[in-house]
């Protein structure tokens, strides 16, 4: 996974506005719908969303900058290689102990996030909570009186889907932090924030116990054509001047295809039309609406007859 700053093409001093601008620009360029013939489009788009998720969140960005999480948002494993710079001391018969400055850090990960604890060795005091440091103290007692290893940690994954996928349903391939690739079925009408449990697909247990679970939360990816307004969508359509004056029909894209919109005669620029049920899935099991704004456009080529007519109308209005 590449550095999130490199993915967005920004510097490490970029502010929130720069991050947002870079993300919106790349989202339109890399959206799978705009790159249907590219088999790697989905992967690039997922990488973009992961990078944005980290850098747009102040807490996650700080964790990444401090090296606490990696480019995928996963906590980095602790490094015990230096043992605090002192390392173990070897005596004539083997190891005789550790330097007084040696610090052991233990990390545990779960739904509440990352927790860190430390214990200092040396000085004749031995280790503090050594079972917690290396996992021996985190076993569960079974019904028969023995101990069972603690399960692996759960993991949280955000899965961006397009508006079309959420509305019509889709099958998405997801790469888990543990390297597994799984297919997830997105049901038609899935709303943002929907959370799915994948039993046994979380982190492996360090003590040989069952694996944790993976929880996948659906998020909406930005759309190149529609602007979200709650469960409603907004879209602008260019209406030729002649159709605005005389009336006409316009083809409007929707999440399920194309709809035909009737433009009444004497339609002013900025007028908004409502296509009911053409928006995003809502809490009642239905869908929001699509709000279409009319933008009046002039002919591409200069029209002398039109100019003459406009001059006459202006003169008539001035003399009235």
Strands, helices and their partners?
Layout: H1 4-8, H2 16-30, H3 41-55, H4 58-65, E1 88-91, E2 94-98, E3 103-110, E4 113-120, H5 130-134, E5 140-141, E6 147-148, E7 155-161, H6 163-168, E8 170-175, E9 181-186, E10 195-198, E11 214-220, E12 227-229, E13 232-240, H7 241-246, E14 248-254, E15 257-263, E16 272-275, E17 290-297, H8 304-319
Give an overview of the whole structure.
- The chain is of the alpha+beta class.
- It has 2 domains: 4-73 and 153-220, Helix Hairpins (Orthogonal Bundle); 227-319, Urease metallochaperone UreE, N-terminal domain (HSP40/DNAj peptide-binding domain, Sandwich), CATH 2.60.260.20.
- It contains 8 helices and 17 strands.
- A 4-stranded mixed sheet has the order 12-13-17-16. The chain has a 3-stranded mixed sheet with strand order 7-11-10. A two-stranded antiparallel ribbon has the order 1-2.
- The chain starts with a helix and ends with a helix.
- Mean pLDDT is 79; it is low at 80-139.
Name the helicity range: 10-25%
Number of strands: 17
Distance between the termini: 70 Å
What do we call the CATH homologous superfamily of the largest domain? DnaJ domain
Structure annotation, total helices = 8
Structural category is: alpha+beta
What is the C-alpha radius of gyration, as a whole number of Å?
29 Å
What's the shape? elongated
What's the CATH architecture name of the largest domain? Orthogonal Bundle
Q: Return the domain count.
A: 2
């Amino acid at each position: 996974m590449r550095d999130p700053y490199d993915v967005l093409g920004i510097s490490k001093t970029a502010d929130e506005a720069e991050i947002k601008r870079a993300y919106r620009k790349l989202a339109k360029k890399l959206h799978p719908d705009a790159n249907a013939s590219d088999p790697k489009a989905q992967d690039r788009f997922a990488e973009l969303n992961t990078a944005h998720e980290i850098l747009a969140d102040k807490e996650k960005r700080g964790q990444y900058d401090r090296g606490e999480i990696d480019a995928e948002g996963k906590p980095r494993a602790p490094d015990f290689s230096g043992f605090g710079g002192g390392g173990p001391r070897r005596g004539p018969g083997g190891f005789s102990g550790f330097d007084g400055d040696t610090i052991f850090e233990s990390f545990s990960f779960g739904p509440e996030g990352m927790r860190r604890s430390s214990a200092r060795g040396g000085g004749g005091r031995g280790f503090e909570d050594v079972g917690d440091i290396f996992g021996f103290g985190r076993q569960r007692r079974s019904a028969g009186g023995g101990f069972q290893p603690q399960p692996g940690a759960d993991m949280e994954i955000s899965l961006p889907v397009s508006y079309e996928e959420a509305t019509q349903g889709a099958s998405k391939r997801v790469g888990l932090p543990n390297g597994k690739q799984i297919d997830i079925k997105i049901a038609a009408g899935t709303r943002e924030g929907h959370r799915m449990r994948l039993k046994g697909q979380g982190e492996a247990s360090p003590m040989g116990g069952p694996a944790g679970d993976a929880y996948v939360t659906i998020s909406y990816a930005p759309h190149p054509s529609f602007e979200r307004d709650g469960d409603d969508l907004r879209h602008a359509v260019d209406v030729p001047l002649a159709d605005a004056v005389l009336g006409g029909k316009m083809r409007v894209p929707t999440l399920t295809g194309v709809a035909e919109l009737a433009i009444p005669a004497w339609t002013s620029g900025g007028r908004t039309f409502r296509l009911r049920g053409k928006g995003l899935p809502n809490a009642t099991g239905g869908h929001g609406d699509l709000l279409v704004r009319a933008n009046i456009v002039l002919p591409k080529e200069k029209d002398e007859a039109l100019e003459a007519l406009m001059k006459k109308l202006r003169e008539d209005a001035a003399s009235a």
